[in-house]
């Protein structure tokens, strides 16, 4: 078996922020301030890619569309995103965070990618969970962003239940997936004896079968009767969590040192198995995946 | 959230046999006898669906094609399969097991499904691992078999690294997946602190996102310098292992009581999320999955 002797090309520290924003327009200012403090804290610890949860600046559980509109902002010109852009510039770091986006009358559950150079791009959640279907418009694209530290793909929460999403991002040459989450419920039990939720294992599996690190930031706390599951994790190209999976309750930041381009070599496991080549695109997915989109890894 | 009040329609005990066959034509007779004893033991415990590992009657690590031919048999007319058919009839049980199949000059890494009524069908491994590519011909179909206890899909070992396979089986209305395995290696570490291997988590994830039970029988022991990983498991429609994951070393049989048709109701999680309907077939897999093959669940 191969031992992975390719020298690291892009080693950096990454961070997953497990925070506890609170819904309600009266809390928005403190929510945004909290994100800025957490970005500063992670950057002080040396993180150059910092991932915050889904809807990190607003909280999640909007009662009505009317309430959701109060929280929404245009991307990238809204005040929250402008504050994040300034923070990324000031701390010389990349930031991924969830935000409630408004364009025209449409609301999107969006993840944004920001770097020291400013706003890079956004991903609008394509799989909507439960009442999100009553509030938001689903996205229609799976962009992968080329940056100085590597190629970054984004996904949001319920997306990880659809193995197609990580496949599509990997197929487009993503070096890492930043996963922003508000995990809330699965058919019981919510946790196993180790205290991990099923989404932890879905994340590990998506990472492993695509040989791509995933930085999954989930939130904790409660909102209007709904409880979030924590369990943030950062996986290596082998899919295993680096330094363990976060607790279900704690506000915390977890870190890992990653080579953001390691995935380009990691998919060749031995002289005969390349996880891209081994896909049977003669039998499935002829229009997607490694066969149908540019294979740049 | 839903509580799953649909009454069980097909409750039975299922078994995953974690055995230790040994390669070498001098061992074939004792390997087959061992499978018959294990089938009898599981049937005595009340199992009506018994899953054995990949290549359960021959061992795995053939040195050459010539040696592999010595172990191979036609399906269903070879002596091993005839013995399994007689065992399934005698014990009034369904059996899934891996066998080395020869048809013409081609060798296949095959899983067979047998019931009290005789031979039902076979699946030829579509994703070949490492030196299997030098010995075997890959399969080209993902059959799902209708039986008196429910619809049964089969997969073999390396297949589970390709989330497409479980998707395709679920899309065709499978109620349960029987997974026959000789798990050998992943990028290190092989096990986590809980003693589980990555294939355990891939199995749980495939089960969970397709809301379908998986009976995964792996083998233990060593052959010609290669070590097998054990860690057999049986998941419910929620993806969690029932009664825990087997040890990495022990010869054992694990059991679970399952409703083999529970998956037909389990994919509806709430008033707004149906895991089949939620697939974005406008964005991916338009030719496969729930959109492209008969949706009979």
Protein architecture, described:
The structure is a homodimer of 297-residue chains. By secondary structure, chain A is of the alpha/beta class. Chain A has a single domain (11-283), classed as Carbon-nitrogen hydrolase (Nitrilase/N-carbamoyl-D-aminoacid amidohydrolase, 4-Layer Sandwich), CATH 3.60.110.10. In chain A, 22% of the residues lie in helices and 25% in strands. Chain A is built from seven helices and 13 strands. Chain A has helices spanning 28-44, 65-71, 79-91, 132-135, 164-171, 198-209, 263-266; strands at residues 11-18, 47-51, 94-103, 106-115, 118-124, 144-147, 150-156, 176-180, 214-217, 222-223, 226-227, 233-234, 252-259. In chain A, the strands form three sheets. A six-stranded mixed beta sheet of chain A has the order 5-4-3-2-1-13. The first copy, chain A, has a five-stranded mixed beta sheet with strand order 6-7-8-9-12, with helices on one face. In chain A, strands 10-11 form a two-stranded antiparallel sheet. The longest helix of chain A is centred in the N-terminal third of the chain and has 17 residues, at 28-44. The two termini of chain A are 21 Å apart. Mean pLDDT of chain A is 92; it is low at 286-297. At the A-B interface, helix 5 and helix 6 of A face helix 5 and helix 6 of B.
Name of the level-1 CATH class of chain A: Alpha Beta
Count of helices of chain A?
7
- SS elements, strand count of chain A: 13
- Alpha-carbon distance between the two ends of chain A: 21 Å
Please, what is the CATH homologous superfamily of chain A?
Carbon-nitrogen hydrolase
Q: Write the CATH architecture name of chain A.
A: 4-Layer Sandwich
Major sheet summary line of chain A = 6 strands, mixed
Query: What is the averaged pLDDT score of chain A?
Result: 92
